[in-house]
Design brief:
alpha/beta, 44% helix, single chain, 241 residues
Length: 241
């Protein structure tokens, strides 16, 4: 059994009911689509991570646009801005980000947004984007999150929110309306407490859900029901029964 198959099986056993597998460059986008085709509870997203924006020429983006039209592709991304490593020039990142947004608008699909140390530019681009989407693996403040929710975005929390050092992020999560929140892995990174140091996997999102339940005064079942409803809403999908 491949890692993907094993991870999906373990997650289902833990109670996880729906998955979106994002491609982050041209090489892995077809793999994400292939996995989604094989499972009725898995969908895909395709796009260029900002690290790889420098590789997003016309031919590469044309292939992403072709894959984006696949029935199992429900979002465009992961795309966005990352000014931490600057593997791609700032101007290139912004141009490629806007190109993804235009594709999402054309197809009527949400975007999955990566943001690291680029919040001002990210907000400026999204403020005029006209497309809904998800801020993935959110790490910014409650004020930024509220502004993004006001623009129609969902805020997605990864294992970071469980880290001892992430009290300000927990404050952000506590202050958000539960109907605008998603949970995620960012596999293989950012495994939540108590799994830090291991490769992350979808079964571990239960720990993120448990943490959110404590912040919101909700049971795990209530958090699961709410985030499942949010998942179906933002991606315009219905989970199999």
């Amino acid at each position: 059994m491949s890692n993907a198959e094993a991870n999906l099986a373990a997650a289902r056993e833990a109670g996880v009911r729906g998955f979106v597998v994002p491609g982050t460059k041209l090489e892995d986008a077809p793999q994400a689509v292939a996995i989604a085709r094989q499972h009725d509870d898995v969908w895909a997203a395709v796009g260029f991570h900002p690290h790889d924006a420098k590789d997003c020429d016309d031919a590469a983006f044309a292939e992403i646009a072709r894959l984006a039209r696949e029935p199992r592709v429900v979002a465009i991304g992961e795309c966005g801005l990352d000014y931490h490593y600057m593997y791609s020039p700032r101007e290139t990142q912004i141009a490629v980000f806007e190109r993804h947004i235009a594709l999402a608008k054309e197809l009527g699909k949400p975007i999955i947004v990566h943001n690291r140390e680029s919040t001002a530019d990210m907000e400026e681009v999204l403020s005029r984007s006209g497309v809904p989407g998800i801020l993935h693996s959110y790490t910014e403040t409650l004020d930024v999150a509220k502004r993004l929710v006001g623009l129609g975005y969902y805020i997605s929390f990864s294992g970071i929110v469980t880290f001892k050092s992430a009290e300000s992020l927990r404050e952000a999560a506590r202050g958000l309306p539960p109907d605008r929140v998603l949970i995620e892995t960012d596999t293989p990174y950012l495994a939540p407490v108590p799994y830090r140091g291991r490769d992350n996997e979808p079964a571990y999102v239960i720990k993120v859900a448990e943490l959110l339940g404590k912040l919101w005064g909700m049971s795990l079942e209530e958090v699961a029901a709410q985030t499942t409803a949010n998942f179906q809403s933002v991606f315009s999908v219905r989970l199999p029964r």
